[in-house]
Amino acid sequence: MASERVEDEHFEEGAEGEEDDQFIDPNDVLIELGDEGDHAMYEEYEGEGGMDGEGMPEEEIVWEDNSTQHFPNHKGSVFAVSTHPSAPLAASGGEDDLGYIWDIMTGDELVKLTGHTDSVTSTAFSADGELVATGGMDGKVRIWRRVGKEDYRTWEFLTELSGPDEVMWLRWHPKGNVLLAGSNDTTVWLWQLPSGNTMQVFAGHMGPVTCGDFTPDGKRIVTADGDGTLIYWDPRSPTPVFKLTSSDARFDLEGITSLAINPASTLAVVGGASGGVRVVSLSKGEVVGALAGHKEGESVEAVEFVELAAAGPGVAPPASGGVVVTGATDGKACIWDLNTMRLRATLEHGDAVTSLHHLPSPKAHLIVSASVDKTLRTWDARTGTLVREHKGHQGPILQAALGLGGSVVVSAGDDGVCLVWPTE
């Protein structure tokens, strides 16, 4: 398939002479570091109800709900939720083959996003907020656009994109209307909007493409699959810049389940089905670190970079290498200092961690974790202390997103409901 040339402002080359890797010394060797005995910083909540003389509860448990808004319109599990970059909007998708755009301040349904014939597993707003995409298990990617310059409540269907067998995830370019999708059939698709033209089809994976994203500078793409392969792409070429596979024993993660890219676009951190985490230099195309804090065999479901300043007098911030948080099915969220490749703190949930999100500056030290234990929690990543617990779901939380500049968190639940809370 012929490729359409990507606009230069989205994918221009970096300046020559840039430092290859400003965080990891070239002489660093792969170091395997274990959990150094960090204990849980939050003990599981226990109810206060007593027992009567026959060992029965004295009274029924009252379900706690401290959310500020809810959206109950889905008829089945809600798999995906995303938020508008500026307006009080969320887009959710679910088991009922539907997506919705709804108001996170009022809970009102604004638009029903129809046309899918199987579960909607991905939703995403474009960087400028003018477009929203839904992706489904039916392989369809459907695009809606905002109508009118002043009214964020009115949207119309624009076009349907085809190509993938089953859409695993969607990502918009950080600066332009270019959409990236990973498929269950080992392919990765790149489209230009609003035309809907296919710009590139990337082939090179051997398993379902489980995760991927643009680098924050918008110049490259990183994708990974369930077979354990990571590929670094130039969007203008169907040929990989480099590829790492499980044939390298240092990179054998028994399938890659999650990834994140640092703000400088120089490092990728990937999590695996085996519980392992690897740090990859994107300039060198090689593994430069291994992080071992999750229980073996527990899948790493979420990775998120955070920016830390000093937490207060006597508490030093990490050096320039950065900090990353990994969350897994063992119920842990591990905070890592990438300068030393050491564990800073361990955060605890009662069940699997499904997603992680950091607030924007000046509160970038705060992270929100979502869990199968039916709660979300806001933490101070500088100290590992719990800031706030968010309750209200009666089933596992499958995805979450920050909205309104990070002031609220919106969740998607297996109980068929989306909820909204203040993050602090």
Overview of the structural elements:
This protein is mainly beta and 424 residues long. It has one domain: YVTN repeat-like/Quinoprotein amine dehydrogenase (Methylamine Dehydrogenase, Chain H, 7 Propeller). The chain has 1 helix and 33 strands. It has one helix at residues 8-11, and strands at 32-33, 69-71, 78-83, 89-94, 99-103, 109-113, 120-125, 131-136, 141-146, 155-161, 167-172, 178-183, 187-192, 197-203, 211-214, 221-224, 230-233, 242-244, 256-261, 267-272, 277-281, 286-291, 300-306, 323-328, 332-337, 342-348, 353-358, 366-371, 376-380, 385-390, 397-403, 408-413, 418-422. It is globular and about 50 Å long. Mean pLDDT is 86; it is low at 1-8, 13-53 and 315-320.
What is the straight-line distance between the termini? 49 Å
CATH topology title: Methylamine Dehydrogenase, Chain H
| Gyration radius from CA atoms, angstroms | 21 Å
Please state how the strands of the largest beta sheet are arranged side by side: 1-22-21-20-19
**What is the name of the CATH class?**
Mainly Beta
How many strands in all?
33
Please state the oligomeric state of the protein chains shown. single chain
| Helix proportion | under 10%
Shape assignment? globular
Largest sheet: 5 strands, mixed
Uncertain segments are 1-8, 13-53, 315-320
Per CATH, the architecture is 7 Propeller
As a percent range, the share of strand residues is 35-45%
CATH superfamily: YVTN repeat-like/Quinoprotein amine dehydrogenase
Class by SSE composition: mainly beta
User: What's the rounded overall pLDDT mean?
Assistant: 86
Keywords: Repeat, WD repeat
Protein name: Ribosome biogenesis protein Sqt1
Pfam families: WD40 (PF00400)
InterPro entries: Quinoprotein_ADH-like_sf, WD40/YVTN_repeat-like_dom_sf, WD40_PAC1, WD40_repeat_CS, WD40_rpt, WD_repeat_multifunction
